[in-house]
Design brief:
It contains 13 helices and 7 strands. The chain is of the alpha+beta class and 284 residues long. The longest helix is centred in the N-terminal third of the chain and has 24 residues, at 3-26.
């Protein structure tokens, strides 16, 4: 077999996987086939002699093609929910059922509310377990930013933006009570708002500003904020309550809160500009 025939055989072995990736990203079997064909064209023109994981390389290529197609679709203001939902051919009936569920009209409508980068990050990570460093390389951002894009998309897909039971309002009250206690140096009141397993995690940019990378337990987390939160402001961060430090109106550090059963279970400290740029922040 010639080198191109060997390459073609390898590509054909990966075609079902690449088709699934493309179809779940695009929501269209026809466009997925176009994306896969473009991936083959790029493969046939590339030197892959030093590529150790050809499947991973092809997944990256087809994902980038899909990202370009999503951006083009967005620019044309097309409605992907109107595209035909056709499940790709598969020898595995169970896989066909999974594909049908994943590409249902309801999900397509939700995916249509996402930006191309959010959609790509969510599909690759949540449906194909692609790690964030690889997703970041495809999208062109930092891994932390890719994680935030996927997290935001996941909340929208799961209906987190719908607040039928007033959960957001209740979480806002908890964050505002936390802020008031921190500003007032009320250590005991802070402890009462924190879950026993609460953890504060800071990104590399925040650590470079002088904070610890991690604080665990109510006492340690409360000590970080006690009497030191006067410049923080309540905000909705990707639709969920948190705190933000801003300079002349520009967010410099964001503190998204995780709250369960009325207690703060986790706080992130995000200072990386690239990550902040992809967050939706609304001061309240």
């Amino acid at each position: 077999m010639s080198e191109i025939e060997i390459l073609a055989a390898r590509f054909e072995a990966d075609r079902p996987h690449l088709r699934q990736v493309a179809q779940r990203i695009l929501g269209s079997a026809h466009e997925a086939d176009d994306a896969v064909q473009e991936a083959w064209v790029r493969l046939s023109r590339s030197d892959t002699s030093e590529v150790g994981n050809l499947t991973g390389w092809l997944t990256t290529v087809v994902s980038r093609v899909c990202l370009d197609m999503l951006r083009s679709r967005q620019a044309r203001r097309e409605d992907p929910a109107e595209l035909p939902v056709v499940v790709a051919e598969s020898a595995d009936p169970e896989q066909e059922a999974v594909m049908a569920d994943t590409l249902g009209p309801a999900l397509l409508l939700v995916l249509d509310t996402l930006s191309p980068r959010e959609r790509l990050a969510f599909v690759l990570h949540d449906l194909f377990a692609v790690d964030f460093p690889q997703i970041a390389e495809i999208i062109g951002c930092a891994p932390a930013a890719a994680r935030q894009l996927a997290s935001r998309a996941r909340r929208r897909v799961q209906g987190a933006d719908l607040d039928e039971n007033g959960q957001i309002a209740r979480k806002r009250e908890i964050v505002e009570a936390f802020l008031a206690a921190a500003r007032g140096g009320e250590f005991t009141a802070l402890l009462a708002l924190l879950d026993p397993s609460v953890t504060l995690r800071a990104d590399e940019a925040a650590v470079a500003m002088g904070t610890d990378a991690r604080a665990e337990g109510p006492e340690a987390v409360a000590a970080v904020f006690n009497g030191r939160a006067k410049a923080l402001r309540p905000a909705l961060i990707d639709g969920l309550p948190g705190l933000v430090w801003a300079l002349r109106g520009e967010p410099k550090v964001a503190f998204p809160f995780s709250i369960e059963d009325g207690l703060v279970t986790g706080i992130e400290q995000i200072a990386d500009p690239a990550t902040l740029a992809v967050l939706e922040i609304e001061f309240v």
